[in-house]
Every structure is written in structure tokens, then in C-alpha cells.
Write a structure and sequence with these properties.
The chain is mainly beta. It has five domains: 19-105, no CATH class; 109-225, OB fold (Dihydrolipoamide Acetyltransferase, E2P) (Beta Barrel); 237-304, Beta Barrel (OB fold (Dihydrolipoamide Acetyltransferase, E2P)); 315-380, Beta Barrel (OB fold (Dihydrolipoamide Acetyltransferase, E2P)), CATH 2.40.50; 381-438. It has one helix and 38 strands. Strands 14, 15, 16, 17, 18, 19 and 20 form a seven-stranded mixed beta sheet that branches. The radius of gyration is 22 Å and the shape is globular. The N and C termini lie far apart (46 Å). Mean pLDDT is 85; it is low at 1-39.
Length: 438
């Protein structure tokens, strides 16, 4: 699959535009041929971010102005030149330490726009900051940008698609999978994959990239990629810029732009903040190293940026502990389903096949459609439960959080609130003494 955004997520060396990040201003050209470039001879081997300026001989990305006059340039799988790169595009730049050797751009999304009131989306992904004055229902649009929450992106570059037969590029989490008919949904868009080349296993909740063409409101897929394989050389250095969309309770794992999972340890350095500033919606620039043995990106430095994005009201992170039953890729606690995906990280020696019947802590993100598990670890202390989510009323008018009810009514004070609580476990789905976890 050419320049797969999913592989951009995890294969930072070979691809580009799934990388989603931020901040950009400036122009796409300069009046001077002697534009200054960064006086740096040790650029990271991979720099991923949003283009803020392009000149005849350099590209500016993540505050780096990198000489690029001899770089190979590829746009959406086609050979191009430096002048074809536009401000706002999210690109991947490979360097030899002193100058760019390759620049790659892939659109984040290319597909039909769905308009619902003032909200625009493509394949279930909400488009924020899009210039929508002349956009009509079903119009084909190319966008680049960065995820600021699950199923929501901040558009930094857009272009109309005038050819109705142009190959589309879509990204999202599968829902309504029907293996008999060979279809699934990405948001409101039906994907027919009967004739497609499929890489990886398809199941509800899996993150996939789809390529195909539009036919009578459906997408006829030619390729579907559900693999999450990282193909780094050991110790590869990469720089990522983006929005934190998930932080685990221990502040040892974050997700950038809903795509890149980055581990944190006691050697990770912080600039303009500390680990306590790792919150969803925070913009960061991350220097990371690929560790082949641990199969992870490890943050060596995290720099906090001043402008934050507020989490959306339809997306939250969650945490829940309890005895888990597992069927296919669904973990269930107290009747609540949590989807295990190709991005789920398993700790404590766990695998997807060893979860059933164990006491576990699940953490991840959820929206109106499903809860996606980012991390699973063994729950050692079953007497105290950390619960994060929305407190609602069940059919018996009892306050409940992830199926737990409080025998002493301490959950009632938090009804209709999104909270982080510490509760004492009593038995089955009963808790008591629930208090805010500071």
C-alpha cells in the first residue's frame, strides 16, 4: 500500500502525512534566494510535523529550517519538487544530520465531506478549522492536519478534489463489520472490501487505512491496511510534534495525535513543564528513540508548547479495573464492553490471549460509539479501584460508573459528571467510599 498513513504512524522513517501536528504560519515562498537556514549540523534523522515555510532551498518544520535543495520530494506517492510543498502540509523529512534527503507528504484524508449542521466530517472524522464557505454535501476534499481528539482533526491544509474517480485515502476505526457482505463503516461511510487487498485482521475498533474509489455513496476499497508493524532500525532518533490524546494513570505512556504511542521513563527530560503537565489537549514536541528490544518509542525529551487544545465533549479518557471476560477483541467488565485494538499496549507480560478471567486495569479513550483500550495491566490491589469516566444513572436510578454502583451512595454526588475517583471495592459490582482522586 503506497505511503500508508497507518504505517506513517509507526514507521516514521518511510512515510509522511499521517503524522499530525501543529502550529504553523508563514508563507510558501521567499523573496530572497539567500534565505537563512538553521545553523545546525545534527538534525534528527526523522522530523515529522507541519510546514510553516518553504523557500527555494529550505523547508521549515518544527522550528527547524532544514536545507532541502537536493532533497527527493514525494507528494501522495508521486515525484514532485520542493515548490510543490505548501504551508500547512504535514510532512515527514528525512535528514543526514545536515540537510534533508527526502521529503514526503501524504494527505491525512481524501474523501467525501458529510455536513451535519455546522459540523463537517470525512468518514466519521470531524474537521475542525476547515475553510467551508463553498463546500457542499458529498464534495471530495483533501486535508492534512493533526488529531486533537478521537475522531476529530484540526485541518491545517485543504484542497478540493476535482476528479470524482480519484483514489481516496481514509483513516478510522472500524464499526459495523459484516464479514459476510464484506463491508464495514468508517463513521457514516460504508466501505466495501470484497475485492480489496487486506493486510492484517479486521475487527470492530481496529484502526485501518483504506484506499479506494467512490461509487454511489459507497467506497469500493482496493486496499485495507490494519497492520501496526514498526519497521525502525534500533536507536532511530525521531522528532514528533502533536497533541496529547491519551495519558495513562502512571504517566508512563502517552499517545500523540491518537496515533503514536510513546513510553516515558525516569530518564525522560522535560522542558517548560513536568510530568504533571502531561494532560490531554496539551501540545508537545517529543524527541524519541526507537527501542527494538522493547518494541516501543521511548521519549528522551518532551517540550511543552504554550497553546493548548481543549478536549472535546464527546471524547474522554477512561480508566476502569475489574475482572475481565474476553470474547474476540472485546473485553467486558460489569457488562461494559471495551475494544482491544491493534494499538492496545499489554503490560506485565499480558497478551490478548491471557486476559480472560483476570483482574485488570484498562485505560483508553471513548466516545459515543465505543471505548478503545490503549493499555492493559494487571490490577494488583483489588481493594481500591481507580475509576475515570462519566457517572450516569442506571435503569434503577442508581448512580453508576462503568457498571459499578455504590452501596453508600457516594457515587450519587457525581451524577452527570466526568470524574476521576478512588473507590473501595466491596464485591461484584459494588463499591463504597468513592472520593475524587487528586
Amino acid at each position: 500500500m503506497k505511503n500508508s498513513p497507518i504505517k506513517n504512524t509507526v514507521n516514521l522513517i518511510s512515510l509522511s502525512a499521517i503524522s499530525l501536528a501543529l502550529c504553523a504560519c508563514g508563507s510558501s515562498s521567499s523573496s530572497s534566494e539567500s534565505d537563512a537556514v538553521s545553523d545546525v549540523s545534527n538534525f534528527p534523522s526523522v522530523i515529522i510535523g507541519q510546514v510553516s515555510e518553504v523557500t527555494s532551498n529550505a523547508i521549515t518544520i518544527n522550528s527547524h529550517t532544514v536545507p532541502a535543495s537536493s532533497a527527493e520530494v514525494e507528494l501522495d506517492g508521486n515525484n514532485a519538487s520542493l515548490s510543490d510543498i505548501k504551508v500547512g502540509m504535514y510532512v515527514e523529512v528525512e535528514t543526514n544530520g545536515t540537510q534533508a534527503t527526502e521529503i514526503e507528504y501524504d494527505p491525512l484524508l481524501k474523501g467525501p465531506v458529510f455536513i451535519n449542521g455546522d459540523t463537517l466530517s470525512i468518514a466519521g472524522t470531524t474537521l475542525n478549522n476547515v475553510q467551508n464557505a463553498n463546500i457542499t454535501q458529498g464534495e471530495l476534499l483533501e486535508v492534512s492536519g493533526y488529531s486533537d481528539s478521537t475522531n476529530s482533526i484540526n485541518v491545517t491544509y485543504q484542497a478540493a478534489i476535482n476528479n470524482p474517480q480519484e483514489e481516496l485515502e481514509l483513516l478510522g476505526n472500524i464499526s459495523n463489520l459484516n464479514t459476510q457482505s464484506g463491508t464495514f463503516n468508517l463513521g457514516n461511510l460504508v466501505i466495501n472490501y470484497q475485492q480489496a487487498e487486506v493486510d492484517g485482521a479486521l475487527s470492530n475498533g481496529q484502526l485501518v487505512e483504506v484506499e479506494g474509489t467512490l461509487n454511489e455513496g459507497h467506497v469500493i476499497a482496493t486496499e485495507v491496511d490494519a497492520e501496526q508493524s514498526i519497521d525502525f532500525n534500533n536507536d532511530t532518533q525521531a522528532e514528533l510534534e502533536g497533541i496529547i490524546t491519551f495519558v495513562n494513570n502512571d504517566e508512563t505512556l502517552i499517545t500523540i495525535n491518537s496515533k503514536w504511542q510513546v513510553a516515558i521513563n525516569n530518564q525522560t527530560q522535560f522542558e517548560d513543564g513536568t510530568a504533571t503537565n502531561l494532560i490531554t489537549g496539551q501540545r508537545v514536541e517529543v524527541d524519541a528513540q526507537w527501542q527494538q528490544n522493547n518494541n516501543q518509542l521511548l521519549a528522551t525529551n518532551i517540550e511543552f508548547e504554550s497553546n493548548n487544545t481543549e478536549p472535546t465533549v464527546t471524547n474522554y479518557t477512561f480508566s476502569v479495573s475489574g475482572q475481565v471476560s474476553v470474547s474476540d477483541n472485546t473485553a467486558t467488565i460489569n457488562g461494559n464492553n471495551f475494544t482491544l485494538t491493534n494499538q492496545t499496549r499489554y503490560e506485565d507480560g499480558l497478551t490478548a490471549l491471557t486476559l480472560n478471567g483476570q483482574w485488570l486495569e484498562l485505560e483508553g479513550t471513548y466516545n459515543s460509539e465505543q471505548a478503545l483500550v490503549s493499555e492493559v495491566e494487571i490490577e494488583d490491589n483489588t481493594s481500591t479501584l481507580d475509576l475515570k469516566g462519566n457517572v450516569t444513572l442506571n435503569e434503577n436510578s442508581q448512580a453508576t460508573l462503568w457498571g459499578y454502583v455504590s452501596e453508600d451512595s457516594t457515587l450519587s454526588q457525581f451524577t452527570d459528571q466526568y470524574v476521576e475517583l478512588e473507590c473501595q471495592w466491596v464485591n461484584t459490582n459494588q463499591v463504597r467510599s468513592c472520593v475524587l482522586d487528586d
